[in-house]
Automatic annotation (TrEMBL):
Keywords: ATP-binding, Nucleotide-binding, Transport. Residues 2-250 form the ABC transporter domain. Transmembrane segments: none annotated. This is ABC transporter ATP-binding protein. It comes from Paracoccus tegillarcae. It comes from the Bacteria.
Amino acid sequence: MIRVEDLHKHFGGFRAVDGASMTIEKGSITGLIGPNGAGKTTLFNVIAGVLKPTSGRVFMGDEDVTGLPPHELFHKGLLRTFQLAHEFSSMTVRENLMMVPGKQTGETIVNTWFRRGQIDREEEALRKRADEVLDFLTIRHLTHEKAGNLSGGQKKLLELGRTMMVDANIVFLDEVGAGVNRTLLGTISDAIIRLNKERGYTFCVIEHDMDFIGKLCDPVIVMAEGKVLAQGSAEGIMQNEQVIEAYLGRGLKNKEMIGA
């Protein structure tokens, strides 16, 4: 699905991504973990076209998509969410979902004059699809709520819902669990699993919560200092000495020492 070959992204003398190579298999939920500053979000931004690489290649299937802008990747089915949700705060939850699909007839002034019927039909179809998404995510009760009034976890669900409004092939989720209470985190993880199993979505997930990663992800890729350090199952990663030293470190060792 996604293949990254010897990718570099430098900011002056700082090597945020320093020769990373990895593969995200179609149909997987791949976890991407590592300490702060490991280069995870920068890697996401390069793959998703937000940043251009200093060198290296990104392939989607057999197609070289290196450096393509986000809107072109969006139309190829590559989507990403952000650590901070990017909602239209003054619009309702349903309206936020209906805004996602591109090339809507009503986007041009001329069409609003001469293609009113077509616009109405499109909007009705989008409204129906948005309501199906809200039902899937169990947030139908928030249909008419202003997006700016949502909790952090609800905004993350809305971002996930936005990926469902188009035909996504692969979705990159950046710290989807950050600041989310355990109940909503369970709802989010269940939705990701269902989208993967029932609709064939491929995911790559940046997350620091190892319980969340362990529940969702196989394989797990570990980054450190801009490079890929290790890859394997969540259980195997937790027992990898290099990973323990570079990332899990004192926290895991202390936990073992106190018998937690």
